[in-house]
């Protein structure tokens, strides 16, 4: 009997000893115990969420400090102002779309909050800035569920009814939209890298914002500006945005935006303008796109100046009935590459006569979206030539003051390749012949 | 194995293979130099796409000429006749010749692209998986057009016929088919898009580009319109496999069916 008792007690002790220790203080408790404006330094381990922050506080983690949510809500909910979160990994938020709200890795509603050096994944929205002001988001990495689940997941960073925020040096990939901005004015978004999303940047009903030096790569669409005005997009790079009717930048139902010194590389369409007026497109480089600029008839009074068009299949297509757009300003037109050669006898870098850019591809694109599948075909050049001969091309652009670039000198060593290969071939043939004879 | 060795000796002693390869090498090097002017993270993918664009022009005509002249020479020099009277059936001769030509031509090309990979690694942000996808497009392109070349070499009786047929086939695939498609595009609707899709993806040049762009993650298959979703109703690699099987089997069988005896005097 005694032996049986000892065995039972032994098993009991063993079972209880293998259960998780509940003596650890929870993260919420640690936060609650930290005084107002105090600093909480976390250890290099995983803490359980979800947590709620209701007072000004600074939470700093180490290299692998993780806050793991229970998968049922926001992992971190910040209701207070002057909160700083730094060096943390945040994961496992709710992906449930049938709930009252769309949950996030971090949802912030206060002012002057800072989110620095964070990694956020396995959440619906990454960081949700809601009705707050003066938020700093710096070096935050958000990764979504992947391109196969674009429709069923949230955005990397979402700003709704907020203003005067700064978002910089962030990396966002595989989310629905990279940065989504709605009813949010006077924000600055700079130096971020967004890839493999639906729209790298999606902008609705928001005005007076600045986007500077961001890179949008391999998205369905680089950036979408809709129902917004007075936005400045400067020195951003929109590249490899290819797909079914993809674009580097779409400006739709928006006015008075400035697109300045950006690069549009290898997109299906560099800029797509629809139902928009008085936007200024200046100093941008359109390189190797299927279509450099696609202008629908509902877009009027845009100004295009000092843009470089190079090696696009179609530099500009205007679709639909004619609309008025200005292709020069203050005597400065655009650079049209070698396709539209023009004389410059007075050497002032401005062509002596106007140029006309003509194309017949507008008709194809207008008729059926499947036309985009053929834009890279070698046959397109023949198609254009046939239409040129038949005079069925339409004038897309008249530039009164085309700009002329100074010729770049190619490195002379490149020219050595041809004779080098020819000589190598000759030596090879000669040796082989002598060997055979 | 004997056939492969014989083919290699014949091809390596001739000028055709090396001239064709030299063209590809030169253009590849120029494209590589151009790709260096792209932003760093774009350079490699952009280079692979440019190489594919170039391959569309060069590889089909190169493969057509090499393989068609190879089989034509067998007829011209009566070696095929000797082989057929001795031990080979028409089908087994064709099969062995096909394997030999495919092996030699693909071997030479793949060899060159591995050499080029060293330069890619040096100058660009090289990614092995992207490179393998690209290499796969080159191999499939060669497989299909070598097979077409073998067919042309088999059915023609004179060299002039052969040259004419080869150039026409190249022009047909690279330009004419797409011109016909472009004329037909405006009449494609949601109802008949499936038929259009079959026709579109049966063209290996379309399917290969689509496969490459989607594999490199450059062409997104998300957020497509209903029309496009119905157009792209199968994974690109499946279209590619169908293409490969269709063109190779079709032209292998046609080669045997329409085999001519040799150059008419």
UniProtKB/TrEMBL annotation, chain A:
<keyword id="KW-1133">Transmembrane helix</keyword>
<feature type="domain" description="Periplasmic copper-binding protein NosD beta helix">
    <location>
        <begin position="151"/>
        <end position="338"/>
    </location>
</feature>
<dbReference type="Pfam" id="PF05048">
    <property type="entry name" value="NosD"/>
</dbReference>
<dbReference type="InterPro" id="IPR026464">
    <property type="entry name" value="NosD_copper_fam"/>
</dbReference>
<dbReference type="InterPro" id="IPR006626">
    <property type="entry name" value="PbH1"/>
</dbReference>
<dbReference type="InterPro" id="IPR051550">
    <property type="entry name" value="SCF-Subunits/Alg-Epimerases"/>
</dbReference>
<keyword id="KW-0472">Membrane</keyword>
<protein>
    <submittedName>
        <fullName>Nitrous oxide reductase family maturation protein NosD</fullName>
    </submittedName>
</protein>
<dbReference type="InterPro" id="IPR022441">
    <property type="entry name" value="Para_beta_helix_rpt-2"/>
</dbReference>
<comment type="pathway">
    <text>Protein modification; protein ubiquitination.</text>
</comment>
<dbReference type="InterPro" id="IPR012334">
    <property type="entry name" value="Pectin_lyas_fold"/>
</dbReference>
<dbReference type="InterPro" id="IPR011050">
    <property type="entry name" value="Pectin_lyase_fold/virulence"/>
</dbReference>
<feature type="transmembrane region" description="Helical">
    <location>
        <begin position="412"/>
        <end position="429"/>
    </location>
</feature>
<keyword id="KW-0677">Repeat</keyword>
<keyword id="KW-0833">Ubl conjugation pathway</keyword>
<dbReference type="InterPro" id="IPR007742">
    <property type="entry name" value="NosD_dom"/>
</dbReference>
<keyword id="KW-0812">Transmembrane</keyword>
UniProtKB/TrEMBL annotation, chain B:
<keyword id="KW-1133">Transmembrane helix</keyword>
<feature type="transmembrane region" description="Helical">
    <location>
        <begin position="239"/>
        <end position="258"/>
    </location>
</feature>
<feature type="transmembrane region" description="Helical">
    <location>
        <begin position="99"/>
        <end position="124"/>
    </location>
</feature>
<dbReference type="Pfam" id="PF12679">
    <property type="entry name" value="ABC2_membrane_2"/>
</dbReference>
<feature type="transmembrane region" description="Helical">
    <location>
        <begin position="162"/>
        <end position="185"/>
    </location>
</feature>
<protein>
    <submittedName>
        <fullName>ABC transporter permease subunit</fullName>
    </submittedName>
</protein>
<feature type="transmembrane region" description="Helical">
    <location>
        <begin position="130"/>
        <end position="150"/>
    </location>
</feature>
<feature type="transmembrane region" description="Helical">
    <location>
        <begin position="54"/>
        <end position="72"/>
    </location>
</feature>
<keyword id="KW-0472">Membrane</keyword>
<feature type="transmembrane region" description="Helical">
    <location>
        <begin position="16"/>
        <end position="34"/>
    </location>
</feature>
<keyword id="KW-0812">Transmembrane</keyword>
């Amino acid at each position: 009997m005694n032996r049986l008792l000892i065995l039972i007690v032994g098993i009991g002790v063993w079972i209880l000893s293998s259960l998780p220790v509940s003596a650890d203080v929870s993260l919420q408790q640690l936060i609650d115990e930290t005084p107002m404006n105090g600093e909480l330094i976390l250890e290099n381990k995983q803490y359980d969420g979800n947590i709620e922050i209701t007072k000004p506080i600074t939470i700093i983690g180490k290299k692998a400090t993780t806050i793991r949510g229970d998968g049922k809500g926001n992992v971190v909910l910040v209701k207070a102002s002057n909160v700083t979160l730094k060096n943390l990994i945040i994961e496992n938020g709710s992906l449930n779309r049938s709930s009252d709200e769309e949950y996030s890795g971090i949802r912030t509603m206060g002012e002057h909050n800072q989110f620095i050096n964070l990694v956020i994944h396995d959440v619906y929205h990454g960081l949700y800035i809601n009705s707050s002001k003066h938020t700093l988001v710096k070096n935050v990495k958000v990764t979504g569920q992947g391109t196969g689940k674009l429709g069923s997941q949230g955005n990397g960073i979402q700003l709704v009814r907020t203003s005067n925020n700064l978002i910089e040096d962030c990396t966002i990939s595989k989310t629905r939209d990279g940065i989504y901005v709605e009813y949010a004015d006077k924000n600055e978004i700079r130096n971020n890298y967004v890839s493999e999303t639906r729209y790298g940047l999606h902008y609705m009903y928001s005005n007076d914002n600045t986007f500077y030096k961001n890179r949008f790569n391999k998205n369905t669409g680089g950036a979408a500006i809709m129902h917004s005005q007075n936005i400045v997009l400067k020195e951003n790079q929109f590249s490899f945005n290819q797909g079914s009717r993809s674009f580097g930048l779409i400006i739709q139902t928006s006015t008075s935006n400035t697109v300045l010194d950006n690069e549009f590389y290898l997109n299906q369409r560099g800029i797509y303008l629809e139902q928009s007026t008085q936007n200024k497109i200046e100093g941008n480089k359109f390189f190797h796109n299927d279509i450099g600029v696609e202008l629908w008839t509902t877009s009027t009074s845009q100004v295009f100046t000092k843009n470089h068009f190079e090696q696009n299949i179609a530099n500009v297509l205007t679709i639909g009935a004619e609309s008025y757009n200005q292709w020069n300003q203050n005597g400065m037109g655009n650079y049209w590459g070698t396709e539209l050669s023009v004389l410059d006898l007075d050497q002032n870098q401005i062509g002596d006569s106007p140029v006309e850019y003509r194309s017949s591809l507008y008709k194809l694109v207008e008729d059926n979206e499947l036309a985009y599948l053929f834009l890279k075909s070698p046959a397109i050049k023949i198609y254009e030539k046939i239409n040129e001969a038949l005079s069925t091309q339409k004038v897309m652009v008249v530039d009164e003051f085309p700009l002329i670039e100074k010729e770049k000198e190619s490195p002379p060593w490149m020219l050595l390749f041809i004779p080098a290969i020819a000589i190598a071939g000759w030596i090879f043939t000669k040796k082989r012949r002598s060997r055979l004879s | 194995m004997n056939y492969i060795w014989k083919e290699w000796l014949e091809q390596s002693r001739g000028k055709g293979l090396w001239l064709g390869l030299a063209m590809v090498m030169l253009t590849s090097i120029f494209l590589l130099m151009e790709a260096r002017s792209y932003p760093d993270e774009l350079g490699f993918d952009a280079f692979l796409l440019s190489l594919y664009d170039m391959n569309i022009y060069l590889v089909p005509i190169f493969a057509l000429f090499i393989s068609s002249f190879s089989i034509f020479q067998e007829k011209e020099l009566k070696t095929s006749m000797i082989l057929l009277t001795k031990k080979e059936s028409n089908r087994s001769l064709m099969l062995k010749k096909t394997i030999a030509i495919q092996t030699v031509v693909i071997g030479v090309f793949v060899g060159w692209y591995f050499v080029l990979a060293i330069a890619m690694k040096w100058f660009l942000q090289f990614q092995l998986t992207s490179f393998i996808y690209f290499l796969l497009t080159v191999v499939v392109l060669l497989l299909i057009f070598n097979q077409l070349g073998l067919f042309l070499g088999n059915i023609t009786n004179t060299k002039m016929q052969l040259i004419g047929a080869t150039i026409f086939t190249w022009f047909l695939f690279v330009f004419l088919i797409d011109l016909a498609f472009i004329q037909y595009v405006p009449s494609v609707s949601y109802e008949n898009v499936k038929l259009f899709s079959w026709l579109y993806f049966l063209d290996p040049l379309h399917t290969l580009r689509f496969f490459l762009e989607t594999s490199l993650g450059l062409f997104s298959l998300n957020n497509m319109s209903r029309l496009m979703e119905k157009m792209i109703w199968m994974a690109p690699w499946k279209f590619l496999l169908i293409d490969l099987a269709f063109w190779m089997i079709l032209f292998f069988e046609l080669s045997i069916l329409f085999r001519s005896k040799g150059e008419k005097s």
